[in-house]
Amino acid sequence: MNKSNSTNSFFRVFPALTHAPFRWFWGGQIISMVGTWTQNIGQAWLVLQLTNSPFLLGLVSAMQFLPMLIFSLHAGAWIDRMPKRRIIILTQTALMILAFILAILIGTGLIQYWMLLILAFCLGVVNTVDVPARQSFVIELAGRKDLSNAIALNSAVFNGARIVGPAIAGIIMGAWGPTWCFLINGLSFLGVIAILIFLPVIPQGSISASRQGKVWPEIKEGLAYIRKTPAILLSIIMLGFLSAVAMNFNVLVPVLAKMELNQQALGYGVLMSSMGFGALIGALTVAMRGASKPQWRTLFTGAIGLAVFSILLGLQSKYWAAAVMLAFMGWSMITFSASVNSLIQLTVANGFRGRVMSVYSLVFGGISPIGSFYAGSLAHLWGARATFIFSGILSVIFLLGIIALIKCRRSGRYVDRHNF
After folding, report:
1. Does 379 reside within a domain?
2. How far is CA 276 from CA 16, 100, 166, 172, in A?
3. N or C, which end of the chain is more exposed by having fewer CB within 10 Å?
4. Is 143 left (phi over 0), alpha (psi -120 to 50) or beta?
C-alpha cells in the first residue's frame, strides 16, 4: 500500500482530522493533557504526604469541583453569548498561572494544606468555564458530520495522557518531588494558547449577539429544553449518578495504592496509567466505529461494565490484578462517557449548546464534591476496596432500574418509543 492510500485510509477512520483547525487544536491538547494529568497525580500524592488522610484528600477534590456545582449553569449561559475561542484563551492562561503558583509554593517549601484547598477552588472556578467552552468549541472545529469522531479523538487524547501523565508524575515525584509536576503542567499550556491565538477565524454560528437580558431566564430555558428532550435528560441522569458513585478514582486509587497495596508514588502512577490505557482503547474503539450517532447499547455496555468491574476491583488484593481491573474500568468509563457526550452534542440545537454542555459538565464534574465526600468518607471508614464494591453494587441497582424504565417507555406505558 502506498503512502497516499495509507493516508486516505487513516483519514477515513479519523475524518475529524481532515479539518485543519481541529487537527491543530487536537495536537496542542495532546501536550496540555499530559501536563494536566501530571499535576493531578502530583496533587493527590502531595495531599496524602501532607495529611495521610483519605478524607482530607476527598475534601481537596471536593473543593476543586465545588465551583462547577455552584456556577456551571451561569457559565453555560455566558458561553452561549461569547466567541468560544476567546473564552478558552482566557481560561487556559488562568490555568497556566495557577500551575506556576503551585510550583513556586511547593518548590519554596511554603505549601500548606489550606493553600491547596484555596488553589483547588480557584482551579475549579476556571474549569467551570473552560470545560463546557472546549466541549462546545469542537463542533466549530470539526463540523456536525464528524463531531462523534472528534469527540472520541478528544477522549483518546485525554486518556492517552492518563497513561503518560501518571507514569511521568510517578517517575518525577520519586526522583525530584512533586514541584516539577506542577511546573510541567504550567509549561504545557503555552502551545495550546499559541495555537488558539493563530487559528484561522472560525464562524461563530452558535452565538446569538442579540442576547442582552438577564442570565437566569436563559438558564431556565436551557433546563426546560433538556427536560423536553428525553434522550438528553436520561443520559445526563445516568452520567450524574455514575459520576457521583462510580467514578471517584482521584480519591480512591491513591488510597488503594498507598494504604492497601503498600505502593509508593511510582506504583500509584502505574495504577493510574493502567486505567488510562484501558480508557484510551475505549476512546479509539468509539472513534473507529464511525457511527454518526452513538448507540444506546454501546452507552449501556460502558455503564454496566463500569459497575461490574468496580465490584471486581474491590475483590482484588494483588497489585497487578488491581491494575488489570482498573484498565477494564477505564475502558468502560470512556465508552460510556464518550457515548453520552456524542449523543448530547448531536441532539442539541446550536443555540442551546453552551447551556446544555454546562449541564453536562455539572453532572460530570460538578457533582464530584458529593462523590468525593462520599468516597473519602467511606474509604476512611471501610477502606478503598470495600468502597469500590459498595459503589459497584449501587450502580448495578441503579442501571437495572433505568433499563426497566426504558422498557416501560418502549412498551408505550409512558411515552412513544422514538425518544429512545
Report:
1. yes
2. 22, 25, 9, 18
3. N
4. left
Rounded-to-integer distance, Cα 56 and Cα 70, Å: 21
Is the Cβ–Cβ distance between 274 and 248 less than 8 Å?
A: no
Residue the block writes with cell 491513591? 254
User: 220 phi and psi, to 5 degrees?
Assistant: -65, -35
Q: Do the domain assignments include residue 3?
A: no
Nearest C-alpha neighbor of 236 from the set 248, 227, 224, 245: 227
Residue 1 in domain: no
90-124 per-position pLDDT tens digit: 999 999 999 999 999 988 888 899 999 999 999 98
**Highest mean pLDDT of the ranges 55-69, 159-173, 280-294:** 55-69
Residue 356 lies in a domain: yes
CB atoms within 10 A of CB 133: 27
Contact 56, 95 (CB under 8 A): no
CA 155 to chain CA mean position, Å: 8
Nearest to 134 by CA among 220, 66, 192: 192
Q: What is the dihedral of CA 368, 389, 261, 39, to 10 degrees?
A: -20
> Burial letters for 250-275: b for 16+ Cβ neighbours within 10 Å, e otherwise?
bbbbbbbbbebbebebbbbbbbbbbb
pLDDT on residue 417? 39
Q: For the domain that residue 126 is a member of, what is the CATH number? A: 1.20.1250.20
**DSSP H helical ranges for 246-366:** 249-255, 265-289, 296-314, 319-347, 353-361
Domain count, the chain: 1
163 in Cβ contact with 280 (< 8 Å): yes
Segments forming the whole domain that contains residue 100: 14-197+214-419
Contacts of 298 by beta carbon, 8 Å cutoff, 6+ apart:
286, 289, 335, 339
Residue in the block written with cell 488491581 = 322
Residues 329-367: pLDDT tens digits? 999 988 898 888 878 877 877 777 777 877 887 787 667
Instruction: List all residues 6 or more positions away from 288 whose beta carbon is below 8 Å from its beta carbon.
Output: 13, 14
C-alpha cell at 152: 472520541
